[in-house]
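Morning F.,

Quick status update on the modeling queue. The single chain you submitted on Monday has been processed. Sequence for confirmation:
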Amino acid sequence: MKNIIEKFKSYSLPKKITIIVLVSPIILGTTGFDIVSTIFPLILYIFLFPLGYVLFDKNLKNEQKVGWLLLVFFFSWLAFAFYLIKKKD
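Structure tokens below.
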């Protein structure tokens, strides 16, 4: 268990959030919560993932980051796809 905790601490913040959101419905589902409380974190994660990805990208300058955050906020996954394409160039 100690090794798992140490490995978890070495992960970056977006990776930690991803693991927590993906594991929490499993834990909540086994403790007797209803289906809404187990699926809600996954739905929230799907909507917030592009924002978090752009927010924690260290390759962007502040002005670029604000612009991409606004685009991703208003156009979600479509703008995120363009961001990934632009980042690849």
